């Protein structure tokens, strides 16, 4: 009896020592899986470096750096897509509704179409209306095919124009911080809104702390 | 290299295993989202892909060795290993005068052998350095035992090369979502992820980037030995790692060396089949033992496509643990059939002093290089 | 076989020889990329287009960088390029020896940088389809057999000659008047990322272990060599730069 108790103690101590040595206890489990991430956050990685002119669903001229100063949720879809794209827009809307009101007032949502030929600003306006969102903060963008390709590349969205009005594309919702840098990515459809909402709250907290410090 | 497992270490390991079983299972979980099934850990966090300014040794970790060496597990119970194996291009020789620009992990073909214990956690880092020249034949500070062993026996005549390509890592010893952790990274980028050795075995690792046939035939593979947590039922006197693989090389009319021959690879017609990466690897530096000793071979058939009918001429395998799992014990086997990426732990007792040939008994392979020697001295009293 | 090749060559639409600007006019035609995609889409038609006869050189890219200093390696934002962008030049705005010589293909350029260059010239990167179409037309014009083509490509994969690249245009341009589509550097195209569908899921990573056979209509060396070009390039990121990756521009006809 005594010997096995000793063995048990020795084992426990050794095991405890092994656990204590583990340098990764408490490691951030939500580490990103993104090809453009994990360098020290610098303005060098801001999407606002994209020098392009877009048209909104209200027919107004728009540049990505118009978004500076506030966070943005951005995704890419096309109007004729009846399966994945409505879900993506709805996911953006679910995020919009899930954030605390104080944050929502500052949140911008940008929906960019892959399909400028068919998704004219007028068509985008109809599309926007069908989703019943806050028109002040939501922007549905029409652009030049080359700029669309550039933006997709900066976000990490892969797509293919099949030439017949359909596009194969990956499903991605991205949160940009106030400086236009990727803060969080959510891949897939009907994903939980928690991670992006949590990050938004975090961004707001650091922004407030920064301004308080000055 | 001689490895001994003393009875005391074995008992203590057993005791710790029992004691650890008495601890809360959740103590072994580290990150949010991890969970256990049957005592095994799943649900590991997503891989991290990033850029780092790293130009240090391409192989880091104390339990990484060059074939045929196997690092000793000089600790009890489980631990977390920090392991790095960078992808580098390297010109290597597989037979006298037959050299080509290989794609490798760590600079050798096969790559370094990692030894861990069942239940260990590995934090793995890999940088794609295929677009920079990396030398492995000079002393390295902070690198693995691998380097000293390569430098003691540079049979592959390693020379740095540049061949920018995307690459990835697939550890057969890890149970993970491949689309996450085995993902491909471009040159200059680093990936880091964790895996837990849930099962014992002799596992292949290899690059999983298409075309996998070409990436493997080019040299990106090696072995992870996961020793059973309770240890083996008998002690071995000698332990060696042996990786069989095929090469599909043809003369390269443009550069004067050799290059990958895709037609030959698709036709399963290798130019060489080797143990440990060179037709003479186990002849120039034969394995050693003495009569009466128990030799334990950790054998992996890395393919990419062939099978191996592994046999030691003059010996019979006293015990074979197929796939290195104690549940899969066979006795008295003359030959062990290994499919592409199968491994096994094979024990034989050296009957007499003399010379023992190890072969792939598919003689079309043996006569293309799949042969080696174990030299046995007289019985030690 | 040779007679058949000659007949085929004669019956194909020809391309005009390279003009003084080194740009070749490529007649369009019915054509499909030599890889299988899960759904047969589109008309399989390539429209007429213009293609640079050779890759963009260090000298040309230097002119661009001088005119657009926001693309200097010490100023270009990190989102548009990786740490090795133009690292082979001795200085951010000066050329040098070996691979940094003026007439060498510019390498260590990201997809973003290549596009910006072409856009500045009133052009664009060729699409994957256009580039491969030009490659096949060129091979047909020269009479390169699939086996020779595969051999040259596999030799390049084995030995990309990264240490000492050749000049972009050595001697007369063969065939359609295009230099060095194979065997010098890998080239960026506009839509370089393969997209693979899995039912409703679009595979973000597009092709991993086990997917090779899905892309190949035939398992011969030539198809394999071509596929390797697609797959390897598709595994790069738009900000990736390597010592064996350059580009040439395409233009739409007036």
Largest sheet of chain B: 6 strands, mixed
Number of helical segments with 4 or more residues of chain C:
7
CATH superfamily of the largest domain in chain B: Cupredoxins -  blue copper proteins
The percentage of residues in β strands of chain B lies in 35-45%
CATH class of the largest domain in chain B: Mainly Beta
Describe the 3D structure:
The complex is a heterotrimer of chains A (214), B (381) and C (254). Chain A has 214 residues and is an alpha/beta fold. Chain A has helices at 2-21, 84-98, 101-104, 121-131, 145-155, 194-213; strands at residues 54-55, 61-62, 72-77, 108-113, 138-141, 159-161, 167-169, 172-176, 182-187. Chain A has a single domain, classed as Glutaredoxin, CATH 3.40.30. In chain A, 38% of the residues lie in helices and 17% in strands. In chain A, strands 5-4-3-8-9 form a 5-stranded mixed sheet, sandwiched between helices. A two-stranded antiparallel sheet of chain A has the order 1-2. Chain A has a two-stranded antiparallel sheet with strand order 6-7. The relative contact order of chain A is 0.17. Chain B is built from 7 helices and 28 strands. Mean pLDDT of chain B is 93; it is low at 1-5 and 13-23. In chain B, 12% of the residues lie in helices and 38% in strands. Chain B has helices at residues 7-22, 145-152, 178-181, 212-217, 262-266, 281-284, 363-366, and strands spanning 35-37, 40-42, 48-50, 59-60, 64-65, 80-85, 87-95, 98-105, 113-117, 121-127, 159-160, 170-171, 190-196, 201-206, 221-227, 238-247, 249-251, 258-260, 272-275, 287-290, 294-301, 308-312, 317-322, 329-333, 335-338, 343-349, 354-360, 371-377. Chain C has one domain. In chain C, the strands form 4 sheets. Chain C has a 3-stranded antiparallel sheet, with no helix packed on it. Chain C is α+β, with helices and mostly antiparallel strands. The N and C termini of chain C lie far apart (38 Å). Chain C is globular and about 45 Å long.
